Amino acid sequence: MAASIAGVRRLYLEPTTLDIREGSIVETPRTSWTDPFFTVDQDLFVLHYNCFAPKPFATDVEYQRGFGHKFGVERSMAQLEKRFRQLTTTATNRGILRVYLKSLLANATVEALDPTYAACVDLSERLETVLHPKLRLEIEMDGDLVANMDTIRIEVSGRSTTPFVRDVPKHLIRAVSSVVDSFLAQAAAGCPPMRHQALTYVPRTGTSREKMVLTDDVPAYDHIPLHNHFDAPVFDRMMLFAKDQDVVEHRMTLVDEYDKFQKTNKLSSDEINQIFEIEMKRYGDVLENAKNKEVAHTRTFLDQALQHDLQSIHAMHAATVANETARISAKYSAQRESLFVRIEVERLKALAMHRDSTQTTLAQLEHVMAVNLQQVDAIFGASEYLLQLMLLAQDLACKKLLNACVRYLTEPRRFQQFCTRRELTSPLLAETTLLLLLQHLPDSDAAEINTVYGAQFVYHEMLRREIHTRLISLTKALESLPNDALRDVMQYAFEKFVGEASSNPSKDVAALGELCKGYPHVLTKELQRRREFSHVKINPALLNDHLSLTEDDLLVELESSNRYCSAIGTKQRSAGEFGRWMFEVCIEAMDPIGASVAIGWEVPRSVLQWAPSEDVWRQTHEAPESPRGDMTRFGELNGYGVVFPGLTPGDDGHSFGILWQSHAGLTGDGMGVLYCNGKQYSGVPTFSSGDVVACTIDQDAVEPFVEFYLNGQLVIPVVNAGNVKKRGEVCSVVQQPLRLHSTHYALFPAATLFSSKDPIARVRFNFRGGFQYPIPGYEPYGAELLDLLEIAGESVSETGGYSALSPRSSIRSNETWGSMQSRRHSDMTRSEGRTSDITLTARSIISNNNNK
């Protein structure tokens, strides 16, 4: 301190009257800072003490002293425990922990490691199996072991085959060919061998060896092109395959594990870099803050000194501030550089340790992959033998070899070079094998072969049927999905356009999403179909003259008395569609005496009312001609007529709607009536003002049906007839499900209002969700799908594919669509009931996609 003061005083050549006061800057305490940075060796020391047994120190005190003695740095137990928690809990992928533990295991056994952390260093069970397969011994047998095996001599000859002889292990050829296995089994049992014209068994006699003759010079192969599938190269490949019949599956497993290991390796490397980058930034910030605090403290003190003795020390004050600031900055700058160099050295050391710990496993994995690739190339690599090998597998019933050939041929971008080969026309190939080939083709390859080769591909019609089947199955699966499930499928299929997708989609969603990537127009068509129902309302063009509609076309109000007035919706549910749908009708007002309201479903109509032929209705709606004074059909008199839904036949003359009517009699007692198939049935409940009627249609059932609910309770079909207020007996018709027997049915939401006194009847339709009484398992009749349609529109415009979809093109900007949150709230109770249906409907497509 004295030397520092002397150095400061020598800066000024002023008279001795200018002296430094006591308590000046040179006597103020400096802020101390302890370096809490842990090196790699210190981390290894901490982990060795906490993760291995037996512990190198008996107590924590000895552990703390041992740390300080080894590294010359004092650390408290709290700091050591905190560092241990950081190493074992803060790392997301435990990359640096895995590196440290593998390094420590170089000088220790795995048994000494705490089982809690054994998972960090253990290879996955699948990777262990890949790197150390049990079949390796059989694949890499030496020559002596093969010579001592039970072998059989195979003599092959034929009309167009060069004769050759092979001594092969008997268990291998029996394992690869069920024909040979059955043949030799019968021969060994002493039974007459199974007759197979291509095989002849010669038992061992004396010094002669046991052998089997294989030839194509037999009547069974007459007039059949054999394509030399008995040649030596083909036979040798079959025996090579027999040594490891799982070689193709082994190769796919190796590729999968190699990718996983590389990803984990990269995550660990990135994590190590990130950890040390964070340490570097954190400690740099700490040093910067410490420097700034000390500079600020020094400046404050000097400013106070300047106030007390401004005139005498003004010049020295400025010089001292500059000198001290420079000195402090230099001190912390040197510390910063030194610390950053240390951190960088430790980072490189940790990365080198990481590379050393993974290099051996990576090299083994790459070696096994290379060996597997050689095996696959040796068996399937040459294109001139691949189809012949498949013919041999088919002829000798080598099921695994046949499946391996199919899987190898149907890998992406491979089958195109074989699709015009004449070997595919061989009668040896079973139709099931050809069908299996086409079913395993990727969507892109199937489309390319269909487009490029067309009729040149000999099985063009089978391929077209396969593509058509895929499209039909995908269409039906998408139609059966509820809106939430369809949204997940679309986000998966259009992920690159949406920008996000579920990080863990379900198996069903992923399968349908992959199919939709190959056929985006099918998904777009389904969204367009549902879009039409997102704007369902009451059709104003067919509205009766004595009814009025509100602005949203959902509230229907009666304007005149003594008139039956009907209204129907804008969209229909037709035969061949899927789903379970519902809508609600709230009876807001109804005259309690002499009025009636009917709610339900109506068939397609061109008009709901008409006048004589000379009237304007004749020109606009093509109403049927009728002479005045004649009542040619129900609801028409003197040429004027109205439709009674449920009783008046449709435009086709034989279809009828299904409506539930509540009639308030003149004496105040009510009566419920069901109109169905042009007839009326009594004995059903009634409803009145304030009630909510729900109409449902189940199109997922084997035979679709409709139901009616009152305030959330099922009332039609009638479950408990004893609680029904009725006139007369309950008809058996209203106690049975109202099934839609027609194969061409089409039903619109409908209502009919009537009043003999005050025309106050008023009903409000709800097609879009947020129901007062949601029915589990049913979707809103006009569910809101604008979010789905916007995404689909973006994807189509990006790809430049099928016709552009503009979801909002026909929707007014000020139109009210309701709350998506309320719709989802009502959907929650239905989601459970739909789950099993979704899975069953999409099952065939998903399994087909998984096989691919």
From TrEMBL:
Q: Where is the region Disordered? A: 803-852
- SUPFAM superfamilies (UniProt xref): Concanavalin A-like lectins/glucanases
Q: InterPro entries under this entry?
A: B30.2/SPRY_sf (IPR043136), ConA-like_dom_sf (IPR013320)
Q: Where is the composition biased (Polar residues)?
A: 803-821, 836-852
Protein origin, superkingdom: Eukaryota
Show the ranges annotated as biased composition (Basic and acidic residues).
824-835
Q: Any idea what this protein is called?
A: SPRY domain-containing protein
